[in-house]
């Protein structure tokens, strides 16, 4: 597919995250102290949208059952059961535009 523009750097403030849909796939994009990262938005436990959860540093906590994922890598950080990691995506910034590489 290539690079898909998901917004301007000024649209996603530091410490915030947003959900974008690319060809029917929901992707979470987060700004961590000026560093943008992206991963799947759907929790692998029960299918909740992670962008409705909480961001603390680079850790996203699912709002449904508190599964925690590292939004830089998509790796599961903490949950009582073993669930799948999420796919992470490369981000590039050109001018003021944020692109997700899918």
Task: Describe what this molecule looks like in 3D.
This protein has 102 residues and is mainly beta. It has one domain (3-101): Rieske Iron-sulfur Protein (3-layer Sandwich), CATH 2.102.10. The chain has no helices and ten strands. It has strands spanning 3-8, 17-22, 25-32, 35-40, 54-56, 59-61, 68-70, 76-78, 88-94, 97-101. The strands form two sheets. A six-stranded antiparallel sheet has the order 1-10-9-4-3-2, with no helix packed on it. Strand 6 and strand 7 form a beta hairpin. The mean pLDDT is 96.
User: Which runs of at least 5 residues are low in confidence (pLDDT < 50)?
Assistant: none
What is the terminal separation in angstroms? Answer: 6 Å
Any guess at the CATH architecture?
A: 3-layer Sandwich
Q: Helix and strand string, N-terminal first?
A: EEEEEEEEEE
Largest sheet: 6 strands, antiparallel
Beta-strand percentage range: over 45%
Mean pLDDT score:
96
* Morphology: globular
Over all CA atoms, what is the radius of gyration?
13 Å
Compute the number of strand runs. 10
How are strands sequenced across the largest beta sheet?
A: 1-10-9-4-3-2
Q: What is the fourth-level CATH superfamily?
A: Rieske [2Fe-2S] iron-sulphur domain
Q: Provide the domain count.
A: 1
User: Which structural class should the secondary elements be placed in?
Assistant: mainly beta
CATH class: Mainly Beta
Which percent range fits the helix content? under 10%
Which topology does CATH recognise?
Rieske Iron-sulfur Protein
Total helices: the number is: 0
């Amino acid at each position: 597919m290539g690079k898909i523009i998901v917004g301007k750097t000024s649209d996603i403030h530091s410490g915030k995250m947003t959900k974008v849909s690319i060809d029917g796939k929901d992707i979470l994009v987060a700004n961590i102290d000026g560093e943008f990262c992206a991963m799947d938005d759907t929790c692998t436990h029960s299918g909740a949208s992670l962008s409705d959860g909480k961001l603390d540093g680079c850790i996203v906590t699912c709002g449904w059952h508190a599964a925690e994922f590292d939004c830089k890598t998509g790796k599961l950080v903490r949950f009582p059961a073993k669930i799948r990691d999420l796919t992470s995506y490369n981000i590039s910034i050109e001018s003021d535009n944020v692109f997700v590489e899918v």
